[in-house]
Amino acid sequence: NCEQLERIAHSFKGSVGNFGAETAYKLAYELEAVGRQSRIGEADHILDRLEKEMEQVKAYYSTIRWETNA
To answer: What secondary structure, in 3-state letters, does the chain show?
Structure first.
């Protein structure tokens, strides 16, 4: 439903924003707007793009050597 889409996209937008993933942030913003404006038919296309972008974010962060303080 549109309200759930808006709420989930809003939360996701905040999460990806914390990682500096600008493209993913913009796509999540688009999904949030789609939910708010009850244009659910546009959600699949944006979600496909967001999933591809998140694969790139995942790949980027998997290459970072994280330091541990053990």
So the answer is: CHHHHHHHHHHHHHHHHHCCCHHHHHHHHHHHHHHHCCCHHHHHHHHHHHHHHHHHHHHHHHCCCCCCCC
Q: Residue 25 corresponds to which tokens in the numbers above?
A: 């942030």
pTM for the full model? 0.86
Q: Give whole-number Cα distances, 46 to 40, 62, 63, in Å.
A: 10, 24, 26
pLDDT in tens, 5-25: 999 999 999 999 998 999 999
